[in-house]
Task: inverse folding
């Protein structure tokens, strides 16, 4: 899954057509580099991020979705707002990537009326404050229990099991030790055999290990992507598609499937 960031920190942020054109070009490069799936995100969920208005999120997202209608790979939209989910689905999105796991009022209904896929992710707290005091007695058990409860909520809301993916949410209200525990025990999140999606690309946990700034986390990002796939991840959400694909091809050649 190639990341396509539509937030102003990655573009000029004026919401004009030039931003959309640059994002579309980036998305097409991600596909050329080997992405089987793209994740479009128009609201930052980095630690400390301030929420984006509905209007701004839609203005950034919809022109890019329209421009990728014929791109040949499924498009996921990273949003927790029900209105954005509905608009994204109307504009051809194949998947909703919800960092709030359908906890926003109206989110279940927004997704239930379609046939798109849905990723349910764990987050403790909210982006603005989630890294201030992550707190668990058993991070793996608690994240697993949360995901089980969200699967139940989705099923009860009329979303078929076949549409679901799960994500323990690396970096979303977790210390380095929490993230490492989750990676060590990744198999425990495969509830009912649902596919796992994981995102660790360039994240601060890699800074905590390597001491590198965000522009120098490529090797660490490839290493964790490979470790995640080895531990059962079905999809890795990454910035550096070409390099990650190369690493995964080597792994695949060795394991022979
Ligand atoms: C994820 O893990 N993450 S947005 C801070 C960084 C670098 C990257 C420099 N959306 C996930 O990518 N969706 C995001 O420090 C996600 N799983 C799913 N399903 C955060 C991000 C990032 C944050």
Result:
């Amino acid at each position: 899954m190639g990341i396509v960031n539509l937030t102003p920190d990655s573009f000029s942020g004026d919401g004009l057509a030039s931003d959309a054109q640059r994002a579309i070009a980036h998305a097409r490069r991600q596909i050329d580099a080997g992405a089987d799936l793209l994740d479009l995100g128009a609201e930052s969920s980095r630690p400390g991020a301030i929420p984006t208005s509905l209007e701004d999120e839609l203005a950034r997202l919809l022109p890019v979705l329209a421009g990728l209608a014929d791109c040949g790979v499924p498009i996921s939209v990273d949003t927790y707002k029900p209105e954005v989910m509905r608009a994204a689905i109307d504009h051809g999105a194949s998947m909703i990537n919800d960092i709030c796991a359908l906890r926003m009022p109206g989110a279940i209904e927004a997704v239930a009326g379609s046939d798109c896929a849905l990723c349910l992710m764990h987050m403790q707290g909210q982006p603005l404050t989630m890294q201030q005091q992550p707190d668990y007695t058993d991070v793996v058990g608690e994240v697993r229990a949360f995901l089980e409860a969200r699967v139940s909520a989705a099923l009860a809301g009329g979303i078929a099991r076949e549409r679901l993916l799960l994500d323990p949410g690396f970096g979303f209200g977790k210390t380095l030790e929490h993230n490492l525990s989750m990676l060590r025990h990744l198999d425990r999140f495969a509830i009912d055999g649902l596919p796992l999606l994981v995102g660790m690309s360039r994240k601060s946990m890699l800074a905590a290990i390597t001491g590198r700034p965000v522009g120098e986390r490529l090797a660490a990002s490839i290493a964790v992507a490979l470790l995640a796939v080895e531990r059962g991840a079905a999809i890795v959400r990454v910035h550096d598609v070409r390099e990650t694909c190369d690493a995964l091809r080597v792994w695949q050649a060795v394991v022979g499937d």
Remarks:
- The radius of gyration is 17 Å.
- Strands lie at 2-5, 38-41, 75-78, 95-98, 117-121, 164-167, 197-198, 235-236.
- The first helix runs from residue 17 to 32.
